[in-house]
Every structure is written in structure tokens, then in C-alpha cells.
Amino acid sequence: MTAVLPPSLPHLMVEDAVRAALLEDLGRAGDITSQATIAPHLTATCVMNAREEGVVAGMPLAQTAFRLIDPGIAFEPMVSDGDRLKPGMALARISGPARNVLSAERVALNFLMHLSGVATYTAKFAAEIAHTRARITCTRKTLPGLRALEKYAVRLGGGSSHRYGLDDAILIKDNHIAVCGGVAQAIAAARAYAGHLVKVEVEVDTLEQLTEALAAGPDVVLLDNMGPETLARAVAMNLAHSGLSPDAYASSKTRVQLEASGNVNFSTVRAIAESGVDFISTSKITMAAPTLDIGLDIEIG
Length: 301
Prior knowledge:
By secondary structure, the chain is of the alpha/beta class. It has helices at about 10-25, 30-35, 60-70, 100-130, 145-155, 175-180, 185-195, 205-215, 230-240, 245-250, 270-275, 285, and strands at about 45-50, 55, 75, 85, 90-95, 135-140, 160, 170, 200-205, 220-225, 255-260, 280, 295-300. The strands form three sheets. The chain has a seven-stranded parallel β-sheet with strand order 7-6-12-11-10-9-8. A four-stranded antiparallel β-sheet has the order 3-5-1-13, covered by helices on one side. It has a two-stranded antiparallel ribbon with strand order 2-4. Helix 5 links the parallel strand 6 (about 135-140) and strand 7. Helix 4 crosses helix 5, helix 7 (about 185-195) packs parallel to helix 8 and helix 8 runs parallel beside helix 9 (about 230-240). The protein is elongated, with a radius of gyration of 23 Å.
């Protein structure tokens, strides 16, 4: 199997996100607490520590937060994005003017805690289905302004990304079908409109709709809110439609791919994956991921 290269974030994207977060936090007068209590000449050395197990994500954003506040702050990373953390593990050592270190602390930790939480939650889902061929994937249900960052964290956790927005793939949902007049009509219209590099996916709620969809030839069918037994029947229908042997079906990238969504959680995801679907999409990994507890402690003495 070909190794999957690790994701990366463009520097400009990182800097824009961090700059906006710092300006939001600094407000109109800057960090008046640090200005009121810490003399300008004082310096501080801090260690950023993990307080629970998880997958780290967001180190470039944390480093950028300190650099934008004060280029003179030294940031020594001790882990890289994607690394597994244990409680007490040091992520970075930061030293420089104390006022500025503390002014950048919250923004740096906010990015790290949230994105590491997304990566960690994704990794837990991925571990549940690692014995199957299914992959856990995120959706467009992301926090406004943080989509690219959250999808980056999902990949670090071992998940994959659904479409990034409304412009990079066609996903025909139930409301589109209702307005258009039917599954086949919607797929035909999408095929006529789309360029040759644009994938077409259609959402179906029943096996009857699946039969109609398979005949129309989309790239992907989204099986919405179907239980494991119904999903297994859908996989069998797709296998029969493909004309492939079971082994060839499992490895084929040209047949219709099947994606399951709806009611995906830790108690259901294993059975969903074992039905034989190719992808399992869930908003849980971006919208419901708990933050990972990470702290910044001043070194005394």
C-alpha cells in the first residue's frame, strides 16, 4: 500500500488565521493585564505541556502566535503535528519578554487545544474501523472560518476530507432531488453541467432510490440514515451492479463508491463500517470533538 504523505498548511493561511485571532483578543488596547502587572524588562520561560493523551495538531499556528506578537520570542517545538501525546509530555519551550509571551498564550493554546481535539477524536473513530476498508471522513459542518484548519486536523487524526466547499464537488441532496424532480434527473443534470474533474455524488434515503441512482451512474452514492443491515444490502446491490468479483470490487476505484452518513457515533460506527461501505461521513469529528487539555506553565528559578 502506498504511504499517505502527511498534510501541511500553507504559511499564508496559518498567518492570516492567527493574525485575525490575535487582533480579536488584543481588542482596542492590547493586553492591559500584562501591561499593568509585568514590568517591560522582565522575561519568562514557559513549557507547553499535554495534560491528557491525544494527537497534536496546530503547532505551526501556536508558533506563529508568539512570532506575530513578538519576533524576539524563542519557540522551541518538541513535537510535530500528528505526534501522539502522553500526559506530561512537553510540546514546546517558549522564552522571551514576559508581557508578550502571556499576550500570545491564549490564542496559541486555543488553536492547539481545538485542533488537537479534532485530530484526537478523529483518531478514535478511525481506530474503531481500522479492521475494515471504510474511511472516516469529515463534512462541511465546521466552525465558520476554521474549515481548512479543522479538515487539516482530521487528516492528522487518520481521517479524510469530504468536499471543502460548495465549489469543489457536486453533492445532490434530498432537497435538490425534490426540486429537480427525481434522482435520475438530478444526476443527468449534474453530469451535463460538471467538468470532467468534478465528482458527482447523490444522496439516497431508500434502496429504491439507490437502484435509480446506480442506473444513472454517479461517482458516489451517499446512503443516508440507513442501518447496518440495509447498508449491507446496498453494498450487495452495488457489487451486483458493478459486475466485478468481490475481490476486484473491494479494490476498484472506478466503480460507484458508497458513503454512509447519519447516526454515526462510537456505538454505531463499527457496525456501519463492517457493512462494506467505502466511507463514513460524520460531523461529530469537527462539531462535537472535545478540546485536548494543553497548558502553558512558567518555569520558576
